[in-house]
Amino acid sequence: QVQFVESGGGLVQAGGSLRLSCAASGITFRLSALAWYRQVPGKQRDLVAHIGSGGTPSYPDSVKGRFTISRDNAKNMVYLQMNSLKPEDTAVYYCNKALTPWDLPTDYWGQGTQVTVSS
Fold this sequence. Notes:
Blueprint: E1 3-7, E2 10-13, E3 18-25, E4 34-39, E5 46-51, E6 57-58, E7 67-72, E8 77-82, E9 91-97, E10 113-118
Parallel strand pairs: 2-10
Antiparallel strand pairs: 1-3, 3-8, 4-5, 4-9, 5-6, 7-8, 9-10
């Protein structure tokens, strides 16, 4: 079955960095476009990065220049390098499969990984 397992979150001071990892299974990884999302309690889940099957990335303005998404097709892994973190980046981060940044992801959500940025 489809499964996404996120890891790498933690507590970091503002201005710091974290690298999130996501292991995907149950999908044809090399042909799949993937994305990272984040959610704060009580708010909707927002996309923070998308990478096409060919490796083309896209980002919303809120994280552009600070976050970098990458993928390793040999390992079925997708990563999110987060630099210059801000307190407003605090959220639970999830990965999923999405054809484009505007398409709905699958219904298969992992447990997410908590990122907390202290001021």
